[in-house]
């Protein structure tokens, strides 16, 4: 008796789980097979078209263009102009691109090294979609030499400056309590700069992402998730653990990780700049990022100045924060994708935010221990100096 | 150059070159020749380059498909002309003719709404090369959408026999941003480059050249490997300029007369390279 009742109620649960699905499928079928919205559709309106030129690869006498169709329907590329002139081209697999599909267009064109070029795709409605090559130069090929060259770029802007910054550890150890607070505040200052810089970069790149992928929300969600994930990891620590040498080393690692994510973004930017032919600014850009990132080493070492970390720890910290720049330079140089860049930058921004919270907590705890306000002159000037350092060294890399 | 070819079953630029419409001819009691046309305007998608379709407004003749440019009207000086115009487009339109006639027949008023009709009637004068186009505001939109055509008034004593071609220099702003994406003579970009116009070496050739290009202040025609006699507006038979290059504002039109001395492909194009490379380029192919 009881079991039949149970069965019956289980069946009811199942039925009620399925009924909404059936109604939903029915409704979708009605929209699919008939046209209940016909009333809203005026005759002869042009279709919505959203075509994105994702990448332009330059080979001797040739452009190879990857095209993405983000419009609601299949789209046909009817003609192509280069520098405002109709030009012959070939599409593979087809000039007709299904929704969310891609095609590759090859154009034989005598592009001029060092000069800008403009490529426009015209759909069957004559709607133009344009992308410019700012400075024409051959796109790097993935071979051993180029691979090493781009890898070295990452080493220059990532690992080396962080390692140099970490070398101030013995000096920082001798600075006393106030000096340490100052360095921690300075770390927050530089992180605040990086947070703003990374967020703005994410917003900028989001503009290049095909509309259907919603670049800006994607960046925000990536940031949100990375922030929550890092909070969950560090939230496991008890207050006592946080205040131990291992707790402080964990915080340093967390800083290194988030800075690493930021450096990945920098690697992307530098790799892409070199690949897009902005290498003319190259050595200036690399020196700039190197100077800019030395400060990051100081920030990473700041939480552990009370302790005696091993050399192995320092090497690991340098790798965690610096090596992502290598990965970034490779991706930026050989397979730049605004979509990936937005995700990485978003993750970076979320991580940096959480690290600001963690370092801030450390600073507050130190201040409370001494019965001081956290917003004292030492901390405020440290913060200001951190921001100023990043701001002025950024003069080398912003144009 | 563009890739592919247009569907010429709807509009054939090759046919348009030599297609003159003399109207329905009759005699008035006073002995004057009366020419009558039934003209309409409609909304019509046209192919302006292979695979690119433009939502045009087009003139057409009864029992014939609408076209851009509109049909070429031809008559002789002194004829009585009667254009029975009915507007089948969703927008108001008129026909404004260049030439001498009473202002009441000038196509400014009345503006004809959808379904309305009006008869333009006047004597053909002066002889020369003229044009007609819609004169409804906004003018830029009504002209560049395709409401224009060539209007030839022959002199009482006809011009010398020649192989005659009509060329209207036009452009299309496909994304309506005030700049043309596609240029041509007779609508289809590069059509005469893909299909050279066939002529004979030494044969007299006459081109009725009209510029209706919107948005660009000027257009031009440069002929390769030959020179032409340029009769400005075609209103004088005894005065011409000898050149291979003419620059024209919108509404300017000239009669060009020449022969090709050598066999082979003679290029012609706008001597603004941008216009040439966006479709306004073609060939005469001279054969022995």
Overall domain count of chain A: 3
Coarse morphology of chain A: flat
- The total number of structural domains of chain B is 2
Approximately what portion of the residues of chain B adopt beta-strand conformation?
Answer: over 45%
Helix content of chain B: under 10%
Give a short account of the largest sheet of chain A: 4 strands, antiparallel
Overall geometric form of chain B: globular
Order of strands side by side in the largest beta sheet of chain A?
Answer: 1-2-6-4
Main structural class of chain B? mainly beta
* Residues in helix, % of chain A: 55-70%
**Class inferred from helices and paired strands of chain A:** alpha+beta
Q: Mean pLDDT of chain B, as a whole number?
A: 96
Greatest interface: A-B, 20 and 23 residues
Name of the level-1 CATH class of the largest domain in chain B: Mainly Beta
- Multimeric status of the protein: heterodimer
Plain-language structure description:
The complex is a heterodimer of chains A (399) and B (288). Chain A has 399 residues and is of the alpha+beta class. Chain A folds into three domains: 2-40; 51-133, Immunoglobulin-like; 144-396. Helices cover 60% and strands 13% of the residues of chain A. In chain A, the strands form two sheets. In chain A, strands 1-2-6-4 form a four-stranded antiparallel β-sheet, with no helix packed on it. A four-stranded antiparallel β-sheet of chain A has the order 5-3-7-8, with no helix packed on it. The longest helix of chain A is centred in the N-terminal third of the chain and has 32 residues, at 2-33. Chain B has helices spanning 13-17, 139-144, 191-194, 273-277, and strands spanning 20-21, 24-27, 33-49, 52-61, 72-76, 80-87, 96-97, 117-123, 128-133, 148-154, 163-172, 182-185, 197-200, 205-211, 218-223, 228-232, 241-243, 245-249, 253-258, 264-269, 281-287. The model of chain B has no long low-confidence stretch (mean pLDDT 96). Chain B contains four helices and 21 strands. In chain B, strands 12-11-14-19-16-17 form a six-stranded mixed β-sheet, with no helix packed on it. Chain B has a five-stranded mixed β-sheet with strand order 1-5-10-9-7, with no helix packed on it. With 288 residues, chain B is mainly β. Chain B folds into two domains: 13-154, Immunoglobulin-like, CATH 2.60.40.420; 163-287, Sandwich (Immunoglobulin-like), CATH 2.60.40. Chain A binds chain B through residues 44, 46, 76, 78-81, 84-89, 122-128, and chain B through 1-3, 43, 48-55, 172, 174-175, 181-182, 189-190, 274, 277-279.
């Amino acid at each position: 008796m009881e079991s039949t009742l149970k069965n019956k109620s289980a069946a009811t649960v199942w039925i009620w789980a399925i009924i909404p699905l059936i109604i939903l499928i029915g409704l979708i079928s009605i929209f699919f097979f008939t046209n209940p919205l016909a009333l809203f559709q005026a005759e002869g309106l042009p279709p919505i078209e959203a075509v994105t030129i994702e990448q332009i690869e330059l080979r001797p006498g040739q452009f190879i263009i990857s095209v993405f169709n983000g419009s609601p329907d299949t789209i046909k590329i009817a003609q192509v102009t280069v520098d405002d002139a109709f030009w012959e081209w070939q599409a593979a697999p087809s000039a007709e691109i299904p929704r969310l599909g891609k095609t590759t267009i090859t154009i034989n064109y005598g592009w001029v090294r060092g000069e800008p070029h403009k490529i426009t795709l015209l759909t069957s409605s004559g709607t133009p979609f344009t992308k410019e090559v700012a400075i024409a130069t051959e796109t790097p090929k993935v071979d051993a030499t180029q691979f090493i060259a781009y890898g070295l770029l990452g080493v220059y802007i990532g690992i080396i400056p962080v390692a140099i910054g970490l070398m101030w550890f013995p000096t920082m150890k001798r600075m006393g309590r106030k000096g340490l607070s100052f360095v921690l505040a300075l770390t927050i200052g530089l992180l605040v700069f990086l947070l703003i810089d990374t967020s703005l970069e994410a917003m900028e790149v989001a503009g290049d992402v095909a509309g259907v992928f919603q670049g800006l929300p994607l960046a925000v969600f990536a940031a949100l998730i990375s922030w929550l994930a890092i909070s969950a990891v560090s939230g496991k620590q008890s207050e006592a653990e946080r205040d131990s040498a291992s707790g402080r080393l964990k915080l340093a690692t967390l800083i290194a990780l988030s800075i690493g994510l930021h450096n990945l973004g920098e690697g992307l930017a530098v790799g892409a700049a070199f690949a897009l032919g902005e290498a003319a600014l190259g050595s200036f850009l690399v020196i700039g990022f190197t100077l800019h990132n030395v400060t990051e080493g100081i920030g990473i070492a700041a939480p552990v100045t009370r302790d005696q970390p091993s050399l192995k720890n320092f090497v690991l910290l340098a790798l965690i924060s610096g090596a992502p720049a290598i990965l970034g330079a490779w991706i930026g140089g050989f397979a730049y994708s605004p979509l990936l860049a937005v995700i990485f930058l978003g993750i970076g921004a979320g991580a940096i935010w959480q690290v600001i919270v963690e370092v801030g907590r450390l600073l507050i705890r130190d201040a409370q221990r001494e019965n001081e306000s956290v917003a004292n002159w030492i901390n405020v000037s440290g913060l200001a100096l951190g921001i100023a350092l990043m701001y002025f060294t950024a003069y080398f890399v912003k144009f | 150059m563009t890739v592919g070819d247009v569907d010429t079953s709807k509009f054939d630029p090759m046919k348009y070159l030599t297609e003159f419409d003399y109207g329905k001819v009759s005699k008035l009691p006073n002995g004057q020749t009366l020419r009558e046309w039934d003209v309409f305007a409609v909304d019509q998608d046209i192919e302006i380059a292979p695979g690119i379709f433009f939502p045009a407004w087009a003139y057409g003749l009864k029992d014939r498909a609408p076209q851009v440019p509109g049909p070429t009207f031809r008559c002789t000086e002194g004829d009585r002309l009667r254009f029975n115009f009915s507007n089948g487009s969703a927008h108001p339109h008129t026909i404004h003719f260049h030439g001498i006639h009473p202002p009441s027949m000038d196509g400014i008023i009345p503006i004809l709404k959808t379904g309305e009709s009006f008869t333009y009637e006047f004597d053909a004068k002066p002889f020369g090369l003229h044009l007609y186009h819609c004169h409804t505001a906004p003018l830029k939109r009504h002209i560049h959408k395709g409401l224009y055509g060539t209007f030839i008034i022959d002199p009482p004593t006809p011009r010398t026999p020649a192989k005659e071609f009509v060329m209207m220099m036009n452009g299309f702003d496909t994304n309506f941003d005030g700049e043309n994406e596609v240029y041509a003579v007779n609508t289809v970009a590069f059509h005469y480059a893909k299909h050279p116009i066939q002529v004979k070496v030494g044969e007299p050739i006459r081109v009725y050249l009209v510029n209706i290009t919107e948005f660009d202040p000027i257009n031009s025609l440069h002929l390769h490997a030959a020179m032409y006699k340029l009769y400005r507006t075609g209103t004088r038979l005894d005065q011409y300029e000898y050149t291979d290059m003419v620059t024209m504002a919108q509404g300017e039109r000239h009669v060009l007369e020449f022969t090709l001395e050598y066999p082979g492909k003679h290029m012609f194009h706008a001597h603004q390279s941008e216009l040439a490379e966006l479709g306004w380029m073609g060939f005469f192919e001279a054969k022995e």
